[in-house]
Amino acid sequence: MNKEPGKLVDFINDPSEIKVAIVRARFNSVITEKMAIHSEKRLKELGVKNIINYTVPGSFEIPLACNKILEKDIDGIIAIGCLIKGETDHYKYIAENTTYGIQKVSLEKNKPIIFGVLTVNNIDQAEARIESSTTYAENLVEMVCNY
Known about the structure:
Elements: E1 19-25, H1 29-45, E2 50-56, H2 62-69, E3 76-84, H3 90-109, E4 113-120, H4 123-129, H5 134-146
Parallel strand pairs: 1-2, 1-3, 3-4
Helix pairs in contact: 1-5, 2-3
């Protein structure tokens, strides 16, 4: 797959027929809100018409929300969060367990959850990655439509 926006693999199924969700953490919302907006805009550009948005307190809560949401008629999820390293180990535990939880839910439910949780050292690194959240949409549509 070419990672340039607008240059994707061919989709086996029609993106207009899929139902997806964006699960966004409120923590560090100055970053996550923009990421969700970019992702949703790109989903619409790709032809996705049925998008549901959910908000959870923080990244740690994303796996549980994804688990419950995938019990509904949802084909896949973009999980969006932003973890900025601090002076304690808290960041490490949240990052590890969020990553593990998202992967576990995806495999157990046999549905794609695109990992859009930033793990960065500072706000500048997070801001530099906001626009790349369009690739979350591209990856989700490819996974839902082709696998």
